[in-house]
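tool_log.txt
---
The assistant was asked to compare two proteins side by side. It first ran the structure predictor on the initial sequence, then on the second. Raw inputs and outputs are pasted verbatim so the downstream comparison step can read them without reformatting.
(1)
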Amino acid sequence: MTWPYKIILQFTEEGKHNRRLLLDRYGVYAQLSALIPILCYQLYRLAIWVSFARQRSRIRYSAVPSSPISKHGRDSRTGSVVIRWRVVKWWLGGEITEGWGMRGHWLAGSVWGTWLLFLCVKETGDDYLHITKRFGVIAASQLPLHYMLSMKSLYSPLAVAFRTSHEELNPWHRMTGRIIYCLLLCHAAWYMNFFVQIGVVQKRLADLVVIIGVLGFAMLTLLVTTSLEVVRRWSYRAFFVCHLIIGVTLMPLLFFHAKSLRIYVIEALALFVFDIVSRKLDTFTGFATIVQIPHTNLVKLTIPVPQSKLRRFAAAPGQHVYLQIPAESTPANTSNPSIHDLCYNPFTIAAVSSSDITLVIRTLRGPTTKAIDNLSHLPKARPPLNIEGPLGSSRHFPNLARDYDRVVMVAGGVGATFILPIYRAVQEQLRIEARSPDRATFAWSMRKTDEAGWAVGSESDSSTETEPRTGNRGLLDDENLKIYLTSGFLAEGNHGDGELLPVDGSVEMADLQKDDESLRGVRVRARQRPDLKVIIDEAFRLGKEENVAVLVCGPKSMAIELRRHVGAWVEKGRDVWFHDESFGW
């Protein structure tokens, strides 16, 4: 099959005008197409709500999970369709291959990319310049959507429309970024080929418009390169700084590169400014009390919160904040103080009281945690820290205690800063409703009991905390909370600076000393890595018709293994809600 496009140099003014109309029209089509998946999702939510309401009235209030009515509902034709849909959803939620993202994202990205390719070639005829320009216009039309998907603000339009948070929109941001880059790669390559074919390479490379285009594409290539996982693991700082600087400076270049792109550039910049202003207005400065947790590399921060924001912090357990160290709090021995002006690190809120919040941070090699570690050594110092939030997807979680018959929670290391507040809230609701506390279980893996010191301390620090508390004996006597001691177990659940794991994600047994169990309020159930298969199987075997919620926050290997064991039960038709809390990007 031959190349269908040819270079047409002799073009009438009417032909150029018609080409410009088509370029603008299909750019608008591509941009407005983004409304279609949003509308489809809203209709899907409506259908789910109607179906759930009907099912709830027929079964949930008239039958217990093991009753014949529930079994009949599962074995009916409608029930079979629902089970198949659950299996498909679960399959789509799995990784296409380790480290490459979910199948659902790739499938949706392929569909979206195919649609944009269709818009790129539709009504281009055999005009080489037309299809070359069309690829550039279609790519630029996706920039506002791309920037919208990157917004961290609580008021992000897409976060509101999809009832989600930034970390769940971020994979879609990466997907649209790949599509945009591929389209612009074709645009740039075909234009350079055009210059070569007509013999004007040197002349055109001296034109300002072309220079801007080449510079912009080179910057975009650098941005894409630093976004690769191998580069991020090597230096997250390099990725972040390049992403921020290039993301801002690229827009003015595109503005002067082509007039037809200016509307999309203005829209993207408007969204960027709106996000910055919204985040700034949602940021407060608190004078933090920073203490080291003995015998660990953990640091506990207690930060007072304005009364006007306390209700938001107490609204849902498991939220997080973005922390930034202002210039006045930067330690004197910091090698590059200006880096803190750009670093906003996410950390989970471990506890909320009537006046402050508690963060627990594992101090690693990153600039933020290094600086906080240095601040913790200053006697009687209460450095001001900038706090943005609260944020997080937990605000949109279902009512776990009410909507699910069993709740299984698993955490590794400081991943418990996310899981433990949710576990306490679920147990408190079960207690209020006079239901068995055995419906919720929590398995917590750590290297030594000292790492639970923050949890024991936070329970006794204040009796006026706004989130549910069970007291010190909660960790000591709670039969549903099991602590496992391991070594070589490095948690990723802190949501701050990353921490390296063994290549195979393995966890070995610890050579434990007796004083490992000396921390008051902590009782160790096992000196081994938790057997996730046993934990999951025990929960699912308690009732064949019961629906189960599973939450995990820990090393990536832990989440992958847990999901594999849960998947075996999904394939058997069980109703499962699964959440893996991770910022691992």
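(2)
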Amino acid sequence: METLQNITPYVPALLLGVALSAASGFRIFVPLFVANLAAKFGLFSLADNMLWLGETPATIVLAVAVVFELAAYYVPIVDNLLDTIAGPAAVLAGTLLTSSFLQIDDPVIQWGLGLIAGGGVAGTIQAGTSLLRLGSTKFTGGIGNSFLSSFENIMSVLVSLFAIWIPIFIGLIALYFVIWVWRKLYKRRQQKQNSREIS
């Protein structure tokens, strides 16, 4: 009971980080930029070791990064190349975002929760968008990729904004979605193993 009481105060901050991490599954820098602005205008407080994320130099760097990232996904071939590094980058961004709002003294717990919750959510969603892009490239010859890029850009902005507005709700939806995806994958894997054993 005491452990639960110790964890409970951090749940809203954890869900805020998870909600923003979900957005980083679509684009890396958009949720980081939104988090920067939210901290800069005092909407949310950052952990003591992450205060740099809310400072002006970070605002400038992230704003430039957002513009380049959003534009780069409209360039043929470059979009698929970006997806090869976007997976690990999304996990790092999700970990960073979630850890930034967890005001926990123990860095192992702070970054551990950030990696498991934020990194897991971001990585799962990013993997899904990468598969969609590969499918789009295969079946449309890359023509459909620009539409997919627009969808991902819009989703990254909307999810980031809603994460700031209703963080607990968006965070819970993101966690539910990731759990649902992993359960589906696990069941499919089990079915394949069972079919191999029968054959």
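---
observation on (2): Helices lie at 2-7, 11-24, 29-40, 56-72, 78-101, 107-140, 145-165, 167-198. The mean pLDDT is 88.
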